[in-house]
Design goal:
Layout lengths: L2 E6 L2 E5 L6 H5 L4 E8 L3 H11 L3 H9 L5 E5 L2 E12 L4 E11 L3 E6 L5 H10 L8 H34 L6 H22 L2 H8 L12 H64 L11 H24 L4
Parallel strand pairs: 3-7
Antiparallel strand pairs: 1-2, 1-3, 4-5, 5-6, 6-7
Subcellular location: Cell membrane
Main location: membrane
Protein name: Magnesium transporter CorA family protein
Length: 322
C-alpha cells in the first residue's frame, strides 16, 4: 500500500491519508508532503502524477528502472534517481536497490523497490525532527544521507575484505586460487559501486545550486556534509580499484618467483643425482679399468658418489639453490 505523510512547520500532523488528498495538503501553507509508492504501482503513480502535475517522461523513467543516478529538471519539479547498495561479505557480491524521487516545492514522492530500506529513512526523519521544519529540502537530505551512508559503509567493508587479501597474498602457504577468485569478486563489486557512486557527486552538487531553490541557508551545512561523504566514497572507491589491480599483479609476480625457486631447486637436485648416475654408468662398462673386479674398485666408486654429491650439495646450499 502507498505510504503518505504530511508535515506542517516541521511537525508530523497526518499519516497514511489517501492519494487523492495529496494536492489538498500540498496547497496548504508551510506543508511538506511525502508519498511513497512501489515501482509496480502504476495506477497509484499516475494518480499522484495527475495530482502534482508530474512530467510524463519522468513518470516513465520512474517505472522503467535501471536509470543512471541523476537529477533532471522539469517544469515545476525535479526528478532524482539514486541507488542504495549492500555488500554480501561472504560472497563479495554487491546488491543495488534503485529509488526514484519527484521533488516539488511542497512534496517529495519516492518510487522504490521492495528491498529499499524505507523504514530506516523514516527513522532518520523522526530522529532529526528539528530539520523537517525546513520543508522538502530536509526530507531530500535525509534520503540522500541514507543512500550515501550506505555507500560509505559498503566501501569500508570492501576495504576490510581487501586487507584480508593482503594477508592471504603473503601467507607462507600459497592461496593462489582463493586470492584470484576473491580479487575478481571484489573488483566486480567495486566496478558496480563506482557506477552508482560517481554520478552522485554531480547530483548533490546540482542540488546545492541556488537556482534550484531546494537547499536553504540553514540546510547548506548538512548538504555540504553529504557532498563531502560522496567525495570521500568516490576517492576511496578509485583507490581500492587500483589496490585490487595491484594485488592481482603481485599475486602473479609471486607465482612467477615461486616457480623460479622450485625450478632452481629441482635443477640442483637433478645435478646431484646426475653424479652417481654418471659414476655407476662408467663403472658398469664391460671394459677393464683400475680396480676392475676388485673390492677396491667398488670402494672407489662409492667414495666418488658420496664425495661429489656432498660437494655439490654444499655448493648449492651456499648459493641458496636448495
Amino acid at each position: 500500500m502507498p505510504r503518505t505523510r504530511c508535515y506542517r512547520n516541521g511537525v508530523l500532523t497526518e499519516e497514511d491519508f489517501p492519494l487523492h488528498d495529496v494536492s489538498e495538503h500540498v496547497a496548504e501553507d508551510s506543508a511538506a508532503v511525502w508519498v511513497d509508492l512501489y515501482a509496480r504501482d502504476l495506477e497509484g503513480l499516475q494518480l499522484v502524477a495527475d495530482e502534482l502535475g508530474l512530467h510524463s517522461l519522468a513518470v516513465e523513467a520512474a517505472t522503467g528502472g535501471r536509470q543512471r543516478p541523476k537529477l533532471d529538471r522539469y517544469l515545476g519539479h525535479h526528478f532524482l534517481t539514486a541507488y542504495a547498495v549492500h555488500l554480501d561479505v561472504a560472497s563479495g557480491q554487491l546488491s543495488t536497490s534503485e529509488i526514484a524521487a519527484f521533488i516539488t516545492p511542497a512534496a517529495l514522492v519516492t518510487v522504490r523497490n521492495d528491498d529499499f530500506p524505507i523504514d530506516e529513512l523514516l527513522s532518520r526523519w523522526d530522529e532529526n525532527a528539528d530539520l523537517t521544519k525546513h520543508g522538502v529540502g530536509a526530507l531530500v537530505h535525509g534520503l540522500l544521507d541514507l543512500i550515501v551512508d550506505g555507500h560509505f559503509d559498503t566501501v569500508q567493508s570492501l576495504d576490510d575484505e581487501i586487507e584480508g587479501l593482503d594477508e592471504l597474498l603473503f601467507d607462507d602457504r600459497p592461496h593462489d586460487v582463493e586470492v584470484q577468485r576473491r580479487s575478481f569478486e571484489l573488483r566486480k563489486s567495486l566496478v558496480e559501486l563506482r557506477r552508482v557512486v560517481l554520478p552522485m557527486r554531480e547530483v548533490v552538487n546540482t542540488m546545492m545550486r541556488r537556482d534550484v531553490g531546494l537547499v536553504t541557508e540553514e540546510l547548506t551545512p548538512y548538504y555540504q556534509d553529504v557532498y563531502d561523504h560522496v567525495l570521500r566514497v568516490t576517492e576511496w572507491t578509485e583507490s581500492l580499484r587500483d589496490l585490487v589491480a595491484t594485488i592481482l599483479e603481485t599475486n602473479l609476480a609471486i607465482q612467477g618467483n615461486r616457480l623460479n625457486v622450485i625450478t632452481k631447486k629441482v635443477t640442483g637436485w637433478a645435478a646431484i643425482i646426475a653424479v652417481p648416475t654418471a659414476i655407476t654408468g662408467f663403472y658398469g662398462q664391460n671394459l677393464p679399468y683400475p680396480g676392475f673386479g676388485t673390492a677396491a674398485g667398488f670402494a672407489t666408486s662409492a667414495a666418488l658418489i658420496v664425495g661429489l654429491s656432498t660437494a655439490l650439495y654444499i655448493a648449492f646450499r651456499r648459493k641458496d639453490w636448495l
